């Protein structure tokens, strides 16, 4: 991606925001003309500016323009979340719902500057009408003979096998059309036991006849599943081959109104549990760089039979809120199941706009339950320990400007995580490791995250770890790809809207920090008490020839003031010669008059 010129003032940003709108309108005309020449219905485009600007909506039926008064609050289906940085003292503010104020803060020095010429996608156009029927003389596609309807209510299609389960093999598999699927993103993979896994994707373009070559001629579902058995895969969705419906319809799906997207999940007690975010469409679609026109409203847990994937339950999560979603990632160690929390907020207008960052999705929270008990009341990681009150929760990590899509797993007795920095807005990958889910997390790698083929029209997001290591011990990383201008560059080229995969070297996490040793107990030693002052001399004694000592009868002492003195003492039984060294003690330590040295 070309490096943009820095935006140095709010005035220049305001001017630059009109560029995507003009470009989108030009694109509509070009695509509509091309569609007319090709005999296709022109695709639907939804583009909208901020609440104080003009919203443009174009479809094959009509074109409408509406202007919101500059004094009116943002028009949404429900009030917006006012962003306050969660701290132990302000954690309750995360759940405060109010109307977002129109704020234009000064450009922060650490905010990444969007590329005005190639902004990240915010208009995610999808076909709302059924695709046209295939030509009557079209030959059946290769997968037609494997298409069946299962007892669990799914359309099931065998879509082929990868050469292996390592990064390069999966990358080659996902780079091509996967049976009826032309493109999809936000891949999640959940173990089912043994060599069986289920992948669930977000927005998926499905076309069973095999005749469509563009997204505009495909059906659309908000989620779809890929059942992996060894290296082979089967597509699962509800509905029919002519009118596909999502794998998980939740409590009722209405395309681009209310739908369900997969979050974290695990297999416990013979049942697969998946956390789902209930998403709702906002009335206004933001323009670059203000995000996407929807937000999560509620958190649910779906329960499935791991053999048939039949749904056996669908209920609100114990903490069914979405600020944050606890279960954005689910991972377990030997004793607990951890629910990593993130707001997954991508409509930045709900938080004052792009320039009002860092936004709520840049913070990671943590809750836990006893291992496998996802319907138990969670305990929340606070600044001082664990609490049963979600208002005590404190973020364990905070990074970036728009979002921090942290994706940890517990693999081979350590924690490892990948993240696509700033998600849809960024272009770098970070790998972190830890011994405990709350950290400390150590960054062991970071660098550019290029799309497949280093295509400059594409972007990358949602880095995700497979729950296994390849034969060489490497991590298997998958990453979503899309075109930055999805309508112009991915609709005619579905290959730009497919995940990629690669291997990443395994790195051992540092050992847990060792607490500093306790200081030794303090012992007070009383000062020594001496009754005889030490002598400043060194004595050499010649032992007597007898063992009897008689007090001296006479004594002769000779001394000088030189640095060496000799004293001779004569007795009837012994002779002592003393050589005096230079004094090394204070006068108070010298022998008292009339006393001999020790």
Features:
33% strand, disordered C terminus, seven-stranded antiparallel beta sheet, six-stranded antiparallel beta sheet, single chain, 598 residues, mainly beta, 4 helices, disordered N terminus, 7% helix
Describe, in plain words, how this protein is organized in 3D.
By secondary structure, the chain is mainly beta. 7% of the residues lie in helices and 33% in strands. The chain contains 4 helices and 33 strands. The strands form 8 sheets. Strands 4, 5, 7, 8, 11, 12 and 13 form a 7-stranded antiparallel sheet that branches. Strands 18, 19, 20, 21, 22 and 23 form a 6-stranded antiparallel sheet that branches. The longest helix is centred in the first third of the chain and has 21 residues, at 18-38.
Note the quaternary state here: single chain
Largest pleated sheet: 7 strands, antiparallel
Given helix and strand content, the structural type is mainly beta
Choose one word for the global shape: globular
Number of strands: 33
SSE diagram, text form:
Layout: H1 10-16, H2 18-38, E1 45-48, E2 54-58, E3 63-67, E4 148-149, E5 155-161, H3 167-175, E6 181-184, E7 188-193, E8 196-201, E9 204-206, E10 219-221, E11 224-229, E12 232-239, E13 244-245, E14 258-268, E15 271-281, E16 294-304, E17 311-316, E18 325-332, E19 336-342, E20 363-370, E21 379-381, E22 386-387, E23 397-398, E24 407-411, E25 414-420, E26 428-434, E27 442-448, E28 458-469, E29 475-483, H4 486-490, E30 500-504, E31 537-541, E32 565-570, E33 575-580
Antiparallel strand pairs: 1-2, 2-3, 4-5, 5-12, 6-9, 7-8, 8-11, 9-10, 11-12, 12-13, 14-15, 15-16, 16-17, 18-19, 19-20, 20-21, 20-23, 21-22, 24-25, 25-26, 26-27, 28-29, 29-30, 31-33, 32-33
């Amino acid at each position: 991606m070309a490096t943009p010129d820095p935006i140095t003032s709010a005035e220049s940003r305001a001017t630059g925001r009109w560029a995507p709108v003009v470009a989108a309108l030009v694109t509509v005309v070009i695509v509509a003309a091309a569609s007319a020449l090709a005999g296709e219905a022109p695709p639907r485009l939804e583009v909208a500016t901020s609440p104080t600007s003009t919203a443009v909506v174009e479809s094959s039926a009509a074109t409408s323009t509406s202007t919101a008064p500059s004094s009116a609050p943002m028009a949404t289906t429900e009030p917006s979340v006012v962003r306050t940085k969660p701290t132990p003292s302000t954690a309750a503010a995360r759940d405060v719902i109010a109307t977002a104020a129109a704020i234009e803060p000064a450009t922060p020095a650490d905010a990444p500057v969007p590329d005005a010429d190639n902004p990240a996608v915010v208009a995610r156009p999808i076909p709302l009408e059924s695709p046209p029927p295939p030509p009557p003389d079209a030959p059946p596609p290769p997968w037609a003979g494997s298409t069946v309807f299962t007892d669990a209510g799914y359309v099931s299609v065998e879509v082929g096998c990868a050469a292996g389960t390592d990064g390069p093999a999966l990358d080659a598999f996902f780079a091509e059309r996967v049976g009826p699927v032309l493109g999809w993103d936000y891949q999640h993979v959940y173990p089912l036991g043994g060599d069986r896994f289920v992948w669930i994707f977000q927005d998926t373009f499905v076309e069973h006849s095999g005749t469509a070559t563009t997204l505009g001629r495909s059906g659309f579902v908000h989620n779809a599943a890929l059942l992996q058995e060894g290296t082979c895969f089967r597509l699962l969705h509800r509905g029919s081959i002519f009118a596909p419906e999502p794998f998980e319809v939740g409590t009722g799906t209405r395309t681009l109104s209310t739908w369900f997207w997969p979050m974290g999940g695990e297999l416990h007690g013979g049942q697969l549990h998946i956390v789902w975010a209930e998403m709702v469409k906002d009335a206004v679609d933001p323009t670059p760089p203000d995000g996407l026109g929807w937000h999560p409203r509620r958190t649910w847990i779906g329960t499935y039979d791991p053999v048939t994937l039949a749904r056996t339950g669908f209920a609100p999560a114990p903490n069914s809120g979405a600020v944050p979603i606890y279960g954005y990632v689910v991972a377990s160690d030997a004793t607990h199941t951890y629910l990593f929390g993130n707001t997954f907020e991508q409509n930045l207008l709900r938080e004052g706009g792009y320039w009002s960052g860092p936004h709520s999705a840049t913070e990671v929270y943590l809750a836990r339950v006893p291992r496998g008990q996802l319907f138990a009341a969670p305990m929340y990681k606070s600044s001082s320990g664990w609490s049963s009150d979600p208002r005590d929760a404190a973020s364990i990590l905070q990074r970036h400007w728009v979002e921090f899509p942290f994706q940890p797993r517990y693999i081979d007795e350590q924690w490892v995580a990948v993240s696509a920095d700033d998600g849809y807005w960024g272009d770098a990958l970070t790998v972190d490791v830890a011994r405990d889910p709350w950290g400390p997390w150590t960054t062991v790698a970071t660098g550019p995250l290029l799309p497949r083929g280093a295509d400059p029209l594409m972007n990358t997001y949602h880095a995700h770890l497979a729950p296994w290591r390849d034969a060489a011990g490497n991590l298997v990383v998958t990453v979503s790809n899309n075109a930055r201008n999805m309508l112009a560059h991915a609709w005619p080229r579905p290959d730009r809207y497919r995940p990629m995969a690669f291997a990443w070297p395994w790195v051992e996490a540092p050992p847990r920090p060792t607490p500093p040793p306790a200081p030794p107990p303090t012992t007070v030693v009383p000062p020594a008490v001496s009754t005889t002052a030490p002598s400043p001399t060194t004595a050499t004694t010649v032992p007597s020839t007898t063992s009897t000592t008689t007090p001296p009868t006479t004594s002769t002492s000779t001394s000088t003031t030189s640095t060496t003195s000799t004293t001779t003492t004569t007795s009837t039984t012994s002779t002592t010669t003393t050589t005096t060294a230079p004094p090394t003690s204070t006068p108070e330590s010298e022998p008292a008059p009339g006393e001999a040295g020790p």
